[in-house]
Amino acid sequence: MARITGSRAGSWPPAASPGRATRVAGDRHNLPVMPGVVIVGAQWGDEGKGKVTDLLADRTDVIVRFQGGNNAGHTIVRDGETFKFHLIPSGILHSDKTCAIGNGVVLDPRILLEEIDGLRRRGVDVGNLRISANAHLIMPYHVLLDTAGEMKLGKLSLGTTRRGIGPCYADKALRLGIRVQDLLDEKILRAKIRTALEPKQQALRELSVRRRKLRKEAGEGADREGGEQAIEDAPDPRLDLHTMTEEHVSYGHRLEPHIADTARLCWDALDAGKTVLFEGAQATLLDLDHGTYPFVTSSNPIAGAATVGAGVGPTDIDEVWGVAKAYATRVGAGPFPTELNEDVGRQLLERGHEYGTTTGRERRCGWIDLIALRYAVRLNRMTALTITKLDVLRGIDPLRVAVRYRSKEGAILDSFPYHQSILHSAVAEYEELPGFDADIEGCRKEAELPPQARAYLDFIADFVGVPIRLVGVGPDREQIVWLGEEPTLRAA
Ligand code: IMP
Questions:
Q1: DSSP 393-441
Q2: Ligand 1 centroid vs 332 CA: distance in angstroms?
Q3: Domain limits, CATH 1.10.300.10, in the chain
Q4: Tell me: the pLDDT tens digits for 257-280?
Q5: Whose CA is nearest to atom 20 of ligand 1?
Q6: Which of 97, 309, 441, 453 measures 20 to 30 Å from 299, CA to CA?
Q7: What is the average pLDDT across 160-176?
């Protein structure tokens, strides 16, 4: 069967790739180094990466997030208790593991501290959390600019999470960013904020005038969302240099015990033969370079970016596990060839509780898209696939899987088109497969799955050319089925 015969399917952590020299931990120990494993979203996000990370974290020593910010939302259900994370790596529920926020992440310190406090209140030990001193900070003006940018685009807006992600990464590229380490030096912090703030105040002032005018035209009672209020009623106290500096110095005091050289931490772990799990946020089709630009996020959620965002080399990565839902969802605007606007779409939305963890927005739902998934498999060079939420498909008959697109001109497209106009107008064409009626939430073994569910999984694995190793059959961490051999515990 295609899904369990991948060349590197086997024990956990997997052996280093054949043909590659085994890395050694130095002359003294001469230990074979355990692999680095990347987890990536294979669709448009919200595939259940948190649950997969949480499960694999059992078999791992270090979990590091390598990109994105609190635009992400990971939900983990443990013993009936629900945990939602935006910034902290999903592995935090394992007190014996080191969890790191890598240099590639952009973080809002206020949100991070709220998350730390929330976990502490629930009795979760966050002593093993490490934050890269080089990670960039989402500042209050980034959040306001994100909202302002979306308002300016109006009907053409991207549907961002309005968490300041894009403006923060833009400042990073402009060399105007504030980094975590800057929190520890008030003088540097103040000077950097001053430099970064000035051009933004101007942009926000212009928008405030424009917005006020629009509101007047629309009538004073017009509703305003989120950050819009702040933009209109400038000067906003959050944009005051003194207030912002003081506030961030105090964040620095609280975060200081966690600030570290997280790249070094990863090297030390790898060199000591430990396993490092690189946790991606968002997903392949939201990748800034390879996704459905401009309807993408502002970072690179694909596996290759784990090296940059965590500070390791490409040869430190041995395995790439992609996570895909048994159907497809997308939040925000942008092309989605298999979107369903009728009954089945509604059914998926409600049964799958497809509402954003971060924004609460309804997710757009559709059939699984194997053209897009095969593209994600190749871009990430996945070694294994995890299919989540298979249980949500119960009772839907027939099941449809997109196997090609048809262009406006009638041409058949059997690979993901690079041209945005072609993708925007592409119509998905499907293969129909029989559905299943049985409740699969209690299944724990492959043989317990109904034959139709197994045939569905086989079809996916054969089409995209990568073995499926794990299937999610319900929200709880126990509700999974390993296909083939279950990874053995090899954490140090
Ligand atoms: P941003 O990352 O907030 O700038 O949003 C850009 C696009 O990425 C929007 O379409 C968002 O809905 C989408 N997006 C960002 N983070 C996530 C996520 O964690 N899951 C799903 N979509 C996301």
A1: GTT--SEEEEEEEE-TTS-EE-S--SSHHHHHH-EEEEEEE----S--T
A2: 7
A3: 137-257
A4: 999 999 999 999 999 989 999 999
A5: 45
A6: 97
A7: 96
